Amino acid sequence: MKVTIVGSGDAFGSGGRFNTCIMIETAGRCVLLDFGASSLVALRAHGIDPDAIEAIILSHLHGDHFGGLPFLILDAAFISCRSRPLIVAGPPGTEKRLRETTDAMFPGIWTTPRRCTLQFIELEDGRTTTVAGAAVTPYRVIHDSGAPAFALRVASGGRTVAYSGDTAWTDRLIDAARDVDLFLCEASSYETPIPNHLTYQTVAANRDRFGARRLVLTHMGDDVLARRSELALEAADDGQLFVLD
């Protein structure tokens, strides 16, 4: 399994980073976890062909995690003329929110002739669902986004990745990260509490409880990035590749 950090930024682009987007490749298949507003630009910057993406799995419905999808739909219709379906898996309400958002940004796009169809999969808390060959298990977490928010556990090819999404502290993160090969965990601030988010100090204090073989921070705010040289935990960079053998 290969895991590429297409974007590791927060909603504010702290540190000049792209919004959250994580690419998982295994057995010739490719899925993304989240697709923030800047993610199509990030794919281009990293030389990743958007047509190679088979599915996008959403943790929650905030713009820095799903807001790039209208641009991807536009690209599929007018630039790549993508013909194979694109799977979008996400919380209940994903299809409605995406259609409304896309129509607000690009009125009439849904009536424009296009070869690419969207296939929606609704994720359910605690239930494992197969998405593009990967076993995806969502865990309900604490993050107000107008729909349920999930941490995600993705297993494929004998390897497992967990991703916190955005959340306040909850023991569901321990369930999601238990015994995984790689846990990508948000740290939106260093020590100052932010509603619905994790601090670095909270993540560090619970490192052993997660049970993950490797933990890497993502979605870091400016105060975390400013202390990067002091951090006891590994921090992700845009474009970083993890090979899980």
Present the secondary structure layout:
Elements: E1 2-7, E2 21-26, E3 29-33, H1 39-45, E4 55-57, H2 63-66, H3 69-78, E5 86-90, H4 94-105, E6 118-122, E7 129-131, E8 134-140, E9 150-156, E10 159-163, H5 172-177, E11 182-186, H6 200-205, H7 207-210, E12 215-218, H8 222-226, E13 234-235, E14 241-243
Parallel strand pairs: 3-4, 4-5, 5-6, 10-11, 11-12, 12-13
Antiparallel strand pairs: 1-2, 1-14, 2-3, 7-8, 8-9, 9-10
Question: Would you mind describing this structure in some detail?
Answer:
The protein is an alpha/beta fold and 245 residues long. It has one domain (2-243): Metallo-beta-lactamase, Chain A (4-Layer Sandwich). 22% of the residues lie in helices and 27% in strands. It is built from 8 helices and 14 strands. The protein has helices at 39-45, 63-66, 69-78, 94-105, 172-177, 200-205, 207-210, 222-226; strands at 2-7, 21-26, 29-33, 55-57, 86-90, 118-122, 129-131, 134-140, 150-156, 159-163, 182-186, 215-218, 234-235, 241-243. Helix 3 (69-78) packs across helix 4. The longest helix has 12 residues, at 94-105.
